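Action item from last meeting closed. Structure (284 res):
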């Protein structure tokens, strides 16, 4: 696996020296165009409250925030870090706290509630904004703290033509990452592996995460997992991984319909991490 810190397409830095809370309509428009074009964009040096982050998400993408249960405010956590619909990833209360967001330490597209939301395709423009408020100096691998991304359009381009054709015929069932309450059935959704981007029309692979099941292997969960890992291994051999090195104040936006990502473990007994997360479906 080749990891790069500069990528030809992903991770474009936009709106230098701007405050997201007071952009013009034209700047908002440009930010979105860059996001569809680049898959992952970064705005640096921000200082927002959780409410301002959410207001920005609503103004920019529409009001359909997803991906967070609406929890009551926590009196033990700084109110500036809290707003309904904004999750806090990490250990904001310090070194003894269990880390929230460990589920993200594997390769995935964020699916959240998409499988149980009627009318949303898996290639819906589902954007996640992650705002690094406090950043550990290193991951458990000793390297700077990063989130990693894979360009799934580049992955598609790098497949050999026979493999591309083969995958064009295949579909996967996608499961919600949330374990349902006993007795509650969350429907799974069927989606073609080759996905066409709703704005740019470019093709890419949509793989969900390793819980996704190739159509035809519904009754063979082990084979389904092996299939997924084998395909993913081929991909990691052919396409570089982009690692975003976090600085406090960074807001990273990614478009789940064209990139996969993975969080990287850090030592929560030594370091604190606070990252605010908003997930939103573009409907403007
Ligand atoms: O914490 C990270 O670096 C990644 C988080 C993630 O996967 C997510 O917020 O969807
Ligand atoms: Fe994620």
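Sequence:
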């Amino acid at each position: 696996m080749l990891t790069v810190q500069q990528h030809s397409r992903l991770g474009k830095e936009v709106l230098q020296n701007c405050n997201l809370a007071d952009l013009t309509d034209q700047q908002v428009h440009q930010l979105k165009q860059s996001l569809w074009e680049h898959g992952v964009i970064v705005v640096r040096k921000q200082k927002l409250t959780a409410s301002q982050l959410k207001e920005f998400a609503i103004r920019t993408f529409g009001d359909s925030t997803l991906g967070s249960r609406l929890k009551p405010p926590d009196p033990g956590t700084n109110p500036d870090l809290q707003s309904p619909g904004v999750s806090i990833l990490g250990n904001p209360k310090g070194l003894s706290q269990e880390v929230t967001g460990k589920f993200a330490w594997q390769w995935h597209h964020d699916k959240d509630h998409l499988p149980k939301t009627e009318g949303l395709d898996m290639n819906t423009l589902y954007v996640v904004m992650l705002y690094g408020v406090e950043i550990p100096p290193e991951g458990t691998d000793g390297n700077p703290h990063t989130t990693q991304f894979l360009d799934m359009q580049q992955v598609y381009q790098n497949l050999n033509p026979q493999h591309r054709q083969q995958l064009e015929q295949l579909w996967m069932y996608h499961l919600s990452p949330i374990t349902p309450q006993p007795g509650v059935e969350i429907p799974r959704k069927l989606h073609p592996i080759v996905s066409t981007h709703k704005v740019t029309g470019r093709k890419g692979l949509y793989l969900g995460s390793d819980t996704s099941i190739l159509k035809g292997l519904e009754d063979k969960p082990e084979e389904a997992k092996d299939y997924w890992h084998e395909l993913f291994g081929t991909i990691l051999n052919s396409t570089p991984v982009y690692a975003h090195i976090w600085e406090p104040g960074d807001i990273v936006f990614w478009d789940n319909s064209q990139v996969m990502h993975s969080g990287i473990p850090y030592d929560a007994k030594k370091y604190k991490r606070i990252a605010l997360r908003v997930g939103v479906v573009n409907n403007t």
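Note appended to the action item: The CA atoms of residues 69 and 85 lie 7 Å apart.
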